[in-house]
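Full entry
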Amino acid sequence: MSARLGFGSVAIALCWVALLAGIGLAGWVMLRPSPTFEDAAALAAAGRFDEAEERINASIKARGSDPRAHLLAAQLLLDRPVPEGKEGAELRLDRANRAADHLRQVQFEEPALAAIAALYRGKASYYRQRTGEAEAAWLDAIRLDPTVPEAGWSLLDLYYLQGREADGQRLALQLHEVEPDPHDRVQLLLELVRQDVMPLAPGAVVERFEPVVEQAPDDLHAVIALGLALVRDSRAQEGLALLRAEVQRRPEDVDAWDALLTGLDDAGELDLMAETIALLPSVLAESPRFARHRGRVAQERGDWNGAALFYRHAVEEAPEDLRLIYRLSRALRLSGDHAEADQLAAMLESAEQSKSEVPSLYDEANRLANLGDPQHAELFRRIAHQRERSGRLREALAWYRLVIEARPEDSESRSAAARLASSGGVR
């Protein structure tokens, strides 16, 4: 999905059109683009990037600090293709540095224009291995204009790479609600299905975030992604050392502590987990984020009643986490509550069986040229059913609502949507 960060020549022209269209009538009179800008955009659309860049640079030298010229210069630098390999990486970094210089000269009052500028600030930061800055810029772009091209997709890509499943799901559902294009509206939901089909190997995450952490060692989410990937790639001590250092750097940060405890759990360092939980600062000690870890320690000690209590609290916070639900089911069974354990076990069995359906459903949907066509409502219903069985209740509700939009008379989908909307697991 990281390929989404490269627009291509046609997209440059489209973003430039959006830039001009966003000015408004009064601004158009004052900021009417010069022939130089129009010519540069046309050259870029034709793939003649060097000539387009020459036109814009000449305009900047002649006319001073025009924010439109600097923004188009940054677009040209960031969106033009680069060759594969080390040469391409070095060229992209050089262009990103130059684009960042241009973007420092760009300020717009109009939200639509400011959103485009923020989008490109994010792209420049991303190519400079500063993913924390990129995330902040893309979030700013969405705040200014939720439909700004590519900002949401770029964030979804970043969350996918960093293993931030809950953040990715939250963002995709948020963007789905406001996306005006029917195809892209469905595609946002399908992206979550794609990520389910294509989990990242830990080694790939290590390869992606080692240079990021080297460049920006204070990027919390990059460090967490790298540390956990190292643990899961059989390099546990390296990963845990990174995560411990992050806790020392941010002693009251809930994400840092949660990542360290997750790493210890994944590495099987359960004695150290117990010792680490005891070190939680008082401001964090009662946070529900740590219920899962307290449950794991209680489980290791054979305290199944305590484990069940903590896991129940954890599931209330993360009702779609099947690993947690499995642990709760096991704790309930070993503490003597067989009835609820059986209910959870049946749900887990259904979720496991539904996994086999995901690749074919994704492939079928991904082949459709016009995914937003209401004629695909039956496919939407099948995907909704699979997401519901797999415990992805928020996603299931969104898919059922697509079916209802296309087929208001579909009583089965209406009933399912009503059930999910009233469920305590959908918040």
User: Anything to note?
Assistant: Residues 85-103 form the longest helix (19 residues). The chain is about 75% helix and 0% strand. Residues 287-336 form one domain. The two ends are 28 Å apart (CA to CA).
